[in-house]
Amino acid sequence: xxxxxxxxxxxxxxxxxxxxxxxxxxxxxxxxxxxxxxxxxxxxxxxxxxxxxxxxxxxxxxxxxxxxxxxxxxxxxxxxxxxxxxxxxxxxxxxxxxxxxxxxxxxxxxxxxxxxxxxxxxxxxxxxxxxxxxxxxxxxxxxxxxxxxxxxxxxxxxxxxxxxxxxxxxxxxxxxxxxxxxxxxxxxxxxxxxxxxxxxxxxxxxxxxxxxxxxxxxxxxxxxxxxxxxxxxxxxxxxxxxxxxxxxxxxxxxxxxxxxxxxxxxxxxxxxxxxxxxxxxxxxxxxxxxxxxxxxxxxxxxxxxxxxxxxxxxxxxxxxxxxxxxxxxxxxxxxxxxxxxxxxxxxxxxxxxxxxxxxxxxxxxxxxxxxxxxxxxxxxxxxxxxxxxxxxxxxxxxxxxxxxxxxxxxxxxxxxxxxxxxxxxxxxxxxxxxxxxxxxxxxxxxxxxxxxxxxxxxxxxxxxxxxxxxxxxxxxxxxxxxxxxxxxxxxxxxxxxxxxxxxxxxxxxxxxxxxxxxxxxxxxxxxxxxx
Length: 531
Hints:
This protein is α/β, with parallel strands linked by helices.
């Protein structure tokens, strides 16, 4: 982007060319507004962030310690504050993204009220949230730069040229809060055409990465619930194609497709795959169908379906729902086939939905995938649906038991019990939990770690703590000590909530537009000055 001084120079020339009609326009103010609004459309954002993701993927391929992370957000303000916090604590946003969860849209953003994660919410709410998130992230840029420009004006008034030059340098090198969003399109909300249309809206809103799952749209379930139904590969490939066409049509050539498989926990399919040649993709999918071998025509009842499997006639097991059942214990094999097929047909990243956070389990599948697709990389759901404490305590228990270490002081099924807190086993479990992302990035090919629903849980927890104190004996102290005082001590920008919401930005605009006649809100009687 052109530097601030160059912007001022160009706008001065433009103003002067208007024969006096634009003399009320200050080129410095106009340049400032340009700098504070770097991205004009969602497609600008999608192209910019897609390039970032591609660079991060290449960096991870060269060094697995350079994995990426994100937290799920259900409101623009939540995403904005996350990025402000990241910049505050770490100085930059490198390798930190946002995740847009279909689960949270269903639970928190639907006009029907709270819904389960079954694609029953309005599909338009997905691109709407992407747009909202980027509106708040762009506002964070404007807010941060506005403070720098105010400081610049003060430095100029004080005649401090060195300070002014330093501030211009900070402005010219400002790092945006706009980062990639990995956006959940569920199973596409319909057929391939519906997937294409929704993907376009998501990309136009700013999405550079779209996550698509291999479940049946009208039977879609949360990945951590039962009853999941997958589709044959040809159906899924068609939707991958639809998303890629949407990216290409809109000029986001670096767009990223995340192909998710739910096959590990999905025991059902709605369709028998079309197959014409033994060993083709449809035949491989059908090879996992459970059923009974047919010896003669008498074994076939009215309504039965018969296929050829391994050279024999098979009557697939069909439920009352009309769904077909897979053979037990075939989940990992189906996951591997799904992932290889997706990567060979246009997907960029994989998502394997698992029932527990276990590095060894994930690595066992990824290693098989990498035998065919050496650069396979995962997006992994560090899900709140897992009981992380219990899972890792049991993993340590099992490891110790295998090593022959004495575990008689612990009851494996009861390791969530508070009485074990602070014990050697539980301390090691916490260490394993802290290292999970690093270990999984190194050993299991996980490029991106995300938590789908963190802000859903943090909002509930903080509200519970405040309500307990405020409506109890603490009264106002519950808010003052538990919220406001901590904001002040920790330097949380929202303590000046008027400023965070744009009051100072608006005041400066009033001065641009009205000059000395501006009626501003930030005077001496503004209680924000107490902070």
